[in-house]
């Protein structure tokens, strides 16, 4: 009888502890303060059919729009019905935005980000005009561009993973030259291979006039245990 009671108590306590932990994790795993747990993971602005509509509804309110409105590549992407504007504020938890390169502490002046989820492509149109990202040599620190490439290539590849989330397994970046302060740039990322839990993305950064700044290759991997938390809207 004593053995049965001990086993019963152990099983009961274990069940209570596991249930409490699971419930607490499900409710509070997302960083606080943050958007509610029922917020969509990838909420993007729907595309319009023409550049006229794009200008009126998607870009006019964006700080960087005047810099790129006459750029041929920008016009091409804006007119492509398969591209949508990525609203970073809606997919990055509030507690993470401060340390995010494109929006937070190392602000790159609210870049315009467009994605083609069908083909696995991401394009960023930005301007590096923050004093916080200039190195001792008076140019944009390469560490900023490396982190920006890491973030952007991962965003580009998330959709190709089984549970739409993963971690950087390998990142290789080759710098051709440094980006000058107050210069506009274009970041281009493309998924080149997607097999199960592994996605390979290639990317590059160029100045607005086409000068190469950096090229990168990223291997994005979804850990096996991520599938057990796919029902929780974690970032």
TrEMBL record:
SUPFAM superfamilies registered for this protein in UniProt: Thioesterase/thiol ester dehydrase-isomerase
Gene3D superfamilies assigned to the protein according to its UniProt record, in alphabetical order: Hotdog Thioesterase
Domain spans labelled Thioesterase: 138-210
One Gene Ontology cellular component annotation held by this UniProt entry: mitochondrial inner membrane
Record-linked Pfam families: 4HBT (PF03061)
UniProt-recorded name of the protein: Thioesterase domain-containing protein
Organism of derivation: Pichia kudriavzevii
């Amino acid at each position: 009888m004593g053995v049965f009671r001990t086993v019963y108590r152990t099983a009961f306590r274990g069940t209570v502890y596991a249930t409490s932990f699971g419930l607490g994790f499900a409710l509070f795993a997302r960083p606080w303060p943050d958007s509610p747990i029922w917020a969509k993971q990838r909420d993007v602005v729907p595309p319009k059919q023409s550049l006229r509509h794009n200008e009126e509804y998607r870009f006019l309110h964006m700080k960087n729009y005047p810099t790129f409105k006459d750029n041929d590549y920008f016009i091409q992407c804006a007119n492509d019905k398969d591209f949508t504007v990525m609203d970073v504020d809606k997919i990055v938890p509030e507690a993470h935005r401060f340390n995010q390169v494109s929006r937070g502490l190392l602000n790159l002046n609210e870049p315009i980000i467009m994605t083609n989820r069908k083909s696995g492509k991401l394009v960023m149109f930005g301007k590096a005009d923050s004093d916080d990202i200039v190195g001792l040599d008076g140019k944009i620190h390469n560490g900023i561009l490396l982190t920006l490439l890491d973030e952007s290539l991962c965003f580009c590849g998330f959709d190709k993973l089984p549970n739409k989330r993963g971690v950087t397994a390998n990142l290789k970046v080759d710098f051709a030259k440094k980006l000058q302060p107050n210069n506009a740039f274009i970041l281009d990322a493309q998924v080149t291979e997607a097999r199960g839990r592994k996605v390979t993305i290639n990317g590059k950064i160029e100045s607005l006039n086409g000068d190469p700044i950096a090229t990168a290759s990223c291997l994005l991997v979804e850990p096996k245990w991520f599938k057990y938390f796919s029902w929780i809207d974690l970032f």
